[in-house]
């Protein structure tokens, strides 16, 4: 009888100890998950160095002449929209005409052409692949390559296309107001969404 009681006591003690350890493990996992969810996709892009192709029209558009690399903060605009795309992404290919229309709305607007800038970053794409995408889909806004996935990894390896919107605050710092996946955006509706941030 005493032998059975000792085994029961040991089992109860082990169960209690395991539940105590598991409760702390679950709390740690919850805390890590909450910390990850509080990080907005795009935060890592704010200070990242972006390599600028030797393209005078890109430099003029972004107002970063004389620089080989730049950051989002260097772009002279109140709002910067970044599209993460891939030459191999069928959704990006399908969305290219919409993004071209969106860019033309910006370019032809006296009110917004200097205040809102648009760039694309080709996740895992070489300069050749980015240039192929630009020529195939007649893209006029700046497209940058990210051949080594450096930027893509900073963003948590998001699916393409992905859009990040940066708004310049009064102190000059940047705030992310848009961070979401998905293409097939209606250009005018997308512009209306963006200009609400001005």
Order of the strands making up the biggest sheet: 5-4-3-6-7
Total E-strand runs: 7
> Main beta sheet: strand number and arrangement?
5 strands, mixed
Per DSSP, what share of the residues sits in E-state strands of 2 or more residues?
15-25%
Radius of gyration: 24 Å
Mean pLDDT: 84
Low-confidence stretches: 17-38
Specify the overall morphology. Answer: globular
The CATH topology assignment of the largest domain is Glutaredoxin
Distance between the termini: 79 Å
Number of helices: 6
Please tell me the total number of domains.
2
**CATH-defined architecture of the largest domain:** 3-Layer(aba) Sandwich
The CATH superfamily of the largest domain is identified as: Glutaredoxin
Residues in helices, as a percent range: 40-55%
What is the N-to-C order of secondary-structure elements (H for helix, E for strand)?
A: HEHEEHEHEHEEH
What structural category arises from helix and sheet content? Answer: alpha/beta
Name of the CATH first level of the largest domain: Alpha Beta
What does it look like?
By secondary structure, the chain is of the alpha/beta class. The chain is globular, with a radius of gyration of 24 Å. 43% of the residues lie in helices and 19% in strands. It has 6 helices and 7 strands; from the N terminus they run H-E-H-E-E-H-E-H-E-H-E-E-H. The chain has 2 domains: 1-38; 43-195, 3-Layer(aba) Sandwich (Glutaredoxin). Helix 3 packs across helix 6. Strands 5-4-3-6-7 form a 5-stranded mixed beta sheet.
